[in-house]
Structure formats: C-alpha cells, structure tokens
Amino acid sequence: MTDAYLGIETSLSARRWIGPGADVERLAEAMAQSTALPRPLCQTLARLGVPEAEAEAYLAPQLRDLLPDPRSLKDMEPAAARFLRAVAENQRIAIFADYDVDGGTSAALLIDWLRQMGLTATLYIPDRIDEGYGPNEPAMADLAARHDLIICVDCGTLSHDAIAAAKGADVIILDHHLGGETLPDALAVVNPNRQDEPGDLAHLCAAAVVFLMLVEAGRQLRAAGQNGPNLMGLLDLVALATVADVAPLKGVNRAFVRQGLRIMAHRDRPGLVALGDVARLDSAPAAYHLGFVLGPRINAGGRIGKADLGARLLATRDPSEARALAERLDQLNTDRREVEAAVRAAALEQAEARGLDAPLVWAAGEGWHPGVVGIVASRLKELTNRPAIVIGLDGDEGKGSGRSVSGVDLGASIQRLAAEGLLIKGGGHRMAAGLTVARDQLDAAMARLADLLARQGAGLAGPADLRLDGVLMPGAASVELVEQIEAAGPFGAGAPGPRYVFPDMAIGFAKRVGESHLKLRFGDGLSGQLDAISFGAFDGPLGPALENHGGARFHLAGRLDINTWGGHKTVQLRLEDAAKASA
C-alpha cells in the first residue's frame, strides 16, 4: 500500500491522504526543466498524462484542431439533411428532450438555431414523475399527429415502442446513452454510444452531438450556396451541458468548455445572465460554477418543479422572461435542497448499515422523491469513492438513479441487468444511469450489480482516499500561479483539478457562515496569509474542529480559486479537508 501523504492515515474527515506518485514527480520535474513552466503546473499536467512535448499545445486547445468530423458518426448526414428539409419547407418540428441540463441545453441549441433561421419549434419535456425518462407512446403519438418531424434529444435510443408510436412523422434521435443490440425504427439515430460505433466519441454529451449535427447542417447549407447561423455563439450551451452532465473533460470536450466559458463571459444569453445574477455570481463563470451553481438550478425544474423551465430559460431571448424563470428555478433549487437533505440522511444511514466499503453503495426508501435520488447517489459516491445507487420505492416498483467513479462503466452494467430480467428497465452511460426495479427483485438486482461492478475494479480504491498534488505555502499561492494552473483546465470529470496541502498552518480567524459553511484565514507566520472557505464543513467534523481550533496547527487541503471583488483579484482556498499537524 502507498504511504500516506504527510503521514495522514486518518484526517478530520476520516480520509487517508495520497500524494503524487514518484513517476508523476519525475515527469513534472523533467517538464519544468524543459518548458520553464511553473512546477505546480507541470505537476498537474504530468498527473493528467500530458506528454512533455505536448504541454504547450495542451494549454491552448483549439476547437478547430480538436473538432471531430460530424460525418464520422453514423446517420449524421441523413439526420442533418432531413432537418434542413424541414427548415426549407417550413415543416412543423417538435423537440422531445430529457428533463436534465443536457436535455434542456440540447433543446435550446435547436430552438436558438431555428429562431435565427426564422422558425419556431414545439418543445416537449416529459414530467419526471408522471411520464418518467424518455419518449413515451402517448406523447409521441400526439406529437406525430401535429408535426412532420420529431427530434428526440438526450433520449430515445432505447425507446422502440415510443418511436414506433410516432406514426406519420419522421423521427431523428440525437443521443449519447448506451444503445442496445437493436435500434428504434427512426429515420436516424445519431449516437456515439451505439453498439456499432467504435467509441472514439463516447465521451460526448447529447448537446455536443446536437452541436455536431448543426455543424453538419451548416456544411450542407454552404454546399447549397446558403449560410446558416454562427455556431460559435452556441458553445456556451454546449459547455454548460458538458460539465453538468459530468462528461470527461478531454479532447474536444475540453475545447468546448474553454470556448463556451469565453462566450458566457460576454453575457449575451439572457437566461444564463439572469441565472448568474440570481445565484449572485460576481465574476464570469468558471467550470466549477457550471457544475455546482448554474447546473443545479436548471435541473431543479425537472427534479421537483415544471419539467420545461430550464430549457425555456436557456432558449428565451426576453430578459424579463429570463429573470422570472431564473427566480422560479432558484426557489425550486432551495426547495430541492430541503428534500435532498432528508433523503440524504436516510440513505446514508442505510448505506452505512450495509457497509461503505463494498463495490456498490446503495439505499432504497419508501416515497423518496425521484427528483433527488440522483443527487443523493452522487453524494454517496463522493463520500465513499464507490458507485452508488439510490432508489425511491412506490407500490410494487422502485425508480432509482446511479452515479459511478472513474474507470467503472455503470451504464453498461445497468443495461446488462435489464437484459437479464433483474430490472424492469434501465440505461445510461458510463458515469450515470437510471433504473426501474420490481420491489421483490431489489436485493437480487443490487447483489448482481455489485458483482458486475466488482469485476471492473469497483471497491479497490480506499473509500476515503484524498488525492493530493503536492505542498504549497501561502506566499507561493499567487494570482499569477493560479491563473497559470487554470490554463491546464477546465477541470472536472476525467480531469480533476489540482488539490494542494498547506502544511503546519496557524488559523488566525474562523467563523461559521450560512447554515453549514466555514470561513477562515490561515498562515505560516512567514510568507503571508490566505483566506479559505469550506462548504458544508458543519455537516461533518471539519467545521467544529477548525472553528474551535484552540491555537492548534493544521495541515489544510483543498483547491485554489481566484476571487474577484470590486475589480481586485485574490486567491482563496476551497478547503476540503484538514488534519492536525504533529506537535
């Protein structure tokens, strides 16, 4: 077993600290010497697997170099051609979208593009509770009776019966969820996770697939001597979906997010401006804000409110409507947090009773709101470093959602369970999945799923390991250094941001803020001081221990952010863990 970093076997949050491996240290040292880049930046690049010769190019990803050929995806050309025929003939178009951020942004991409071409489309997003995920037969039959073309985004790949019900209309599916052995009888199924795709683009979210379809549509328009909308202005939506849907930030995904954040900083999309304002963002959004500030608010409509609120917010060009929708979503997000807290407490108690070191962590409860089980599963996954499933039981069935860890394909395992008859239905992708299970099959299904996940290596990592990139002192944590490190981003799924330890620090100020957060200031007495914020610190032992430090010194671990206030930039530590320094 690897030695604990700084000797910390059990931190205040009961985690074992793991430092960078010797191979990463060697690569970082060689890169620092050959490129003259700062050592902390080289540590991050080495950990991400960036070769020394590619370091400079990695720090400046260009979309034109990384964008795949849309035609490399099966059915792309006929999908774009049918879409353009509907536009040219002013046909009636309906968009059937999933109720999460990826579905909402996918729909907004199409609505925005069509609006710029002088057209409107019908938006249909199913109710999570009444209709469930994906196309259903009554909705598709009704849409087909009133439209010529139905475009299913972020859903539809497994919806054979529902697609068959859309008689009289053509159906195009633009999705990224795992496909089955056969595909629905649609005009086109564009999905990098079809079983007959090589998987080179399996990391794309649905909004990215929609964007590639619009790229192909633009190519076909130009070939016909026409011009389409400027697609670069749509990348803010692609960036939001990529981060919020936990797509790995590699290759073109990284370029999508980098460019999309630049577009977002221009504050041209009323919905995102209003949402940022209601969330009290005082600077241009970073990838972190997409995943943890904007994304949850957009999702709140589909979770416990009206399913189409998020998509309408993203698509509107009316600032007044945007403000009203943003305020509604913000309130729904507050309501969602209250519901989530109750389910999370019960799920954690149940999961702990089963054991948090198993290959699968799961919980099921009577009447748990289906809109929050996915978030609670994510919390359990983060706590345990294991795939997690949380299920709400209602009558003879349970509907659940799961989240996975890096290297473990949850969606494929869920799909296998459905094929084996242990689930009523199930599907998803590598990092997230949904399922419906009969109550009397629950234990058998979870036991089988645990076995399948264990074969992929789930449960081998320490449940409380905290991975660290190295040591920093307060005086070295400058705005310039943090900006240089951020050039290796954006950070997120598949490319975690660096986490540093500030060793043997004295706490000069500590104060509880809000319900459960902790603000503090610390220093080493020599090189300066840093401010820190620890979100949710009082949900566990971290907050009380640091607030009542009694003059003790601590190792403090977390990620560095830049705070902008009144045009002035300062560095802040987003504190995640701490351990008492040895006397």
TrEMBL record:
Residues 469-577 form the RecJ OB domain. SUPFAM superfamilies: DHH phosphoesterases. GO terms for biological process: DNA recombination; DNA repair. Residues 362-453 form the DHHA1 domain. Residues 322-349 form a coiled coil. InterPro entries: DDH_dom, DHH_sf, DHHA1_dom, RecJ, RecJ_OB, SSDNA_exonuclease_RecJ. It holds the Pfam family DHH. GO terms for molecular function: 5'-3' exonuclease activity; nucleic acid binding. The keyword Iron does not apply. Keywords: Coiled coil, Exonuclease, Hydrolase, Nuclease. Transmembrane segments: none annotated. Residues 92-242 form the DDH domain. Signal peptide: none annotated. Belongs to the RecJ family. This is Single-stranded-DNA-specific exonuclease RecJ.
